[in-house]
Amino acid sequence: MKKKVLTVDDSRTIRNMLLVTLNNAGFETIQAEDGVEGLEVLENANPDVIVTDINMPRLDGFGFIEGVRRNEKYRAIPILVLTTESDAEKKNRARQAGATGWIVKPFDPTKLIDAIERVTA
Amino acid sequence: MDMNEIKEIFFQECEEQLAELESGLLKLNDGDRDPETVNAVFRAVHSIKGGAGAFGLDDLVSFAHVFETTLDCVRSNKLEPTQDVLKVMLKSADVLADLTNAARDGGSVDESRSRTLIRELEALAHGEAPAAAEAPAPKPVAAAPAPVVEKPPVNDEGFQPIPFSFGDFDDEPAGHYVPTVQIDFKPKKDLYAKGNEAVLLLRDVSRLGEMSVYCDMDALPPLDKMNPEEAYFSWKLSVTTEKGEDGVRSVFEFAEWDCDLDIRTIEEDVVGETADEEEPPMQPVPFDLSMLDEGASCAAGEEQAAENPAAAAVAAAETASKVAQVASRAAENAKAAAASAAQASQAAAAGQTIRVDLDRVDRLINLVGELVINQAMLSQSVVENDNNGTSSINMGLEELQQLTREIQDSVMAIRAQPVKPVFQRMARTVREIADITGKSVRLITEGENTEVDKTVIDKLAEPLTHMIRNAVDHGLEMPEKREALGKNPEGTVRLTAKHRSGRIIIELADDGAGINREKVRQKAIDNDLIAADANLSDEEIDNLIFHAGFSTADKVSDLSGRGVGMDVVKRSIQALGGRISISSKPGQGSVFTMSLPLTLAVLDGMVVTVAGQTLVVPLTAIVETLQPEASAIHSFGASQRLISIRNSFCPLVDVGRILNFRGTQANPVDGVALLVESEGGGQRALMVDAIQGQRQVVIKSLEANYTHVPGIAAATILGDGRVALILDVDAVVAASRGQSLRQDISLAATG
Question: Among A67, B398, B502, B509, whose CB has the most other CB atoms within 10 angstroms?
Answer without folding.
Answer: A67
